[in-house]
Design brief:
By secondary structure, the protein is an alpha+beta fold. It has three helices and five strands, in the order βββαααββ. It has a domain of 71 residues: Winged helix-like DNA-binding domain superfamily/Winged helix DNA-binding domain (Arc Repressor Mutant, subunit A, Orthogonal Bundle), CATH 1.10.10.
């Protein structure tokens, strides 16, 4: 059995948890540690699970008050990296052409 990276306890196979502050996502007995921006993207998409979120909305959410990058394509980079990390845990981010991103959950939450 896999152990939690923060507390060292065994992870039950049916547990789902996500701590935005630490970036630790636990799902299906597996875990992944996400950097701050990727954790924020996941949090935002989880809150809107099953609905499409536009790239510009994600950009505004990620870079509120921070030094903003010049282009919104940084969102694509964060989403791409996040996709690779969460897919083995049963979470899927799909792209809707010219619309945005949608989080779907294959695992039971």
């Amino acid at each position: 059995m896999i152990c939690c990276p923060t507390c060292g306890q065994a992870l039950p196979p049916d547990r789902f948890s996500f701590d935005v502050d630490s970036g630790v996502l636990v799902c299906g007995g597996r875990f992944v540690h996400l950097p701050r921006r990727e954790a924020h993207v996941l949090e935002f998409l989880l809150e809107r699970r099953g609905r499409t979120v536009t790239r510009s909305i994600l950009f505004q959410e990620l870079y509120r008050g921070d030094d903003e990058p010049d282009a919104e394509n940084v969102v694509e980079s964060h989403v791409s990296k996040l996709r690779r990390k969460i897919l083995p845990l049963g979470l899927v981010i799909t792209s809707e052409r010219y619309k945005g991103y949608r989080l779907t959950v294959e695992a039971t939450l």
